[in-house]
Amino acid sequence: MEQTPKNFRKIIHIDMDAFYASIEQRDHPEYRGKPIVVGGSPEGRGGVVATASYEARKYGIRSAMPSKRAKQLCASVIFVRPRFEVYKDVSRKLREIFHRYTDLIEPLSLDEAFLDVTHDKQGIGSAIDIAKLIKQAIKDELQLTASAGVSINKFVAKIASDMDKPDGLTFIGPSRIEKFMEDLPVEKFFGVGRVTAEKMRNMGLHKGADLKLLSEADLTKRFGKPGKFFYKIVRGIDDREVRPDRETKSVGAEDTFPYDLEDVSEMMEELEKIATILEGRLQRHGFKGRTITLKIKYHDFRLVTRSQSFPQGVNDKPTILATVHQLLIATDLEEKKIRLLGISLSNFGELGERVRREDESDQLKLF
């Protein structure tokens, strides 16, 4: 480790458990103990799952799964219409709880945030004790549960919060970090999607310990700029600060497909799923952007983007979908196989509220 004990940060990552679904089960007793999903459509006729309750997850149902697939996995699953205003109100109450202990709060979404409690407001001193107090306040005041990860940097705290869900608290202290990172599967590293993970495994790189054997130059040569991040993080080094004033510059969603798309109608079907997710994110946060961008990655990994700007901000699915359709057909699709499609909205200007968010959370992987 390159840090000394006196300058260790105390970072907490709070992640609500099945946030939307838990709120619905809290507010509707008839849903408790039953497999429910928020989003999608009854009878699995279209749309995608926004959140699945833990009862639904036992059947393999996951966020962003097509509702048709969710219905196939669990015939008795209950589809619930999302109530974003309610979720936003709960999120505001969460922030009020966080602010009792620190003003260094960096929300990643409505249901998760980083907190820097190195110098907490109440002089408690222990990040573990603060995490316990926050979790208890969430239970007592909101009748919901959260999982917490506690460590000396953002990356490890975020990984830790997912280790004992639901209602968990995991502390990974300085002496444990390097061993923890060595044992971490490569697909758990930020920046490692399915394609990169497969590439790594083909190179014999399965865990952090394997990455640690490579020099920074080797990692950068093989993986580009993320290689520098991999080199540091596998050694437990993450100097990123909790940034309460970070402003979202773009919001996007994308999907990498298990096979190459060759049919335009199939491409549009996938783009509709992506646009549905994107519309929900934009409208939850009150964003309207002037620039819509279509991202295409071909089977040979060639990446192209096409954009269209508007005089006024937009955030509705029909406009987004019509725009990316035109952008798609304007590209050279002859004998081209597509492996990834993505849509993003940017150029918010004064049209979007300022939110605090970590860079890497701005894109949503659909599967």
UniProtKB/TrEMBL annotation:
It is an enzyme of class 2 (transferase). InterPro entries: DNA/RNA_pol_sf, DNA_pol_Y-fam_lit_finger_sf, DNA_pol_Y-fam_little_finger, DNA_polymerase-Y, DNApol_IV, PolY_HhH_motif, Rev_trsase/Diguanyl_cyclase, UmuC. Its EC number is 2.7.7.7. Its main location: cytoplasm. Binds 2 magnesium ions per subunit. Keywords: Cytoplasm, DNA damage, DNA repair, DNA replication, DNA-binding, DNA-directed DNA polymerase, Magnesium, Metal-binding, Mutator protein, Nucleotidyltransferase, Transferase. Its cofactor is Mg(2+). SUPFAM superfamilies: DNA/RNA polymerases, Lesion bypass DNA polymerase (Y-family), little finger domain. It is found in: Cytoplasm. It catalyses: DNA(n) + a 2'-deoxyribonucleoside 5'-triphosphate = DNA(n+1) + diphosphate. Mg(2+) binds at residues 15, 111. One of its GO terms (molecular function) is DNA-directed DNA polymerase activity. The keyword Translocase does not apply. The record marks 20 as: Substrate discrimination. The active site is at 112. Residues 11-193 form the UmuC domain. Monomer. HAMAP family: DNApol_IV. Poorly processive, error-prone DNA polymerase involved in untargeted mutagenesis. Copies undamaged DNA at stalled replication forks, which arise in vivo from mismatched or misaligned primer ends. These misaligned primers can be extended by PolIV. Exhibits no 3'-5' exonuclease (proofreading) activity. May be involved in translesional synthesis, in conjunction with the beta clamp from PolIII. Belongs to the DNA polymerase type-Y family. This is DNA polymerase IV.
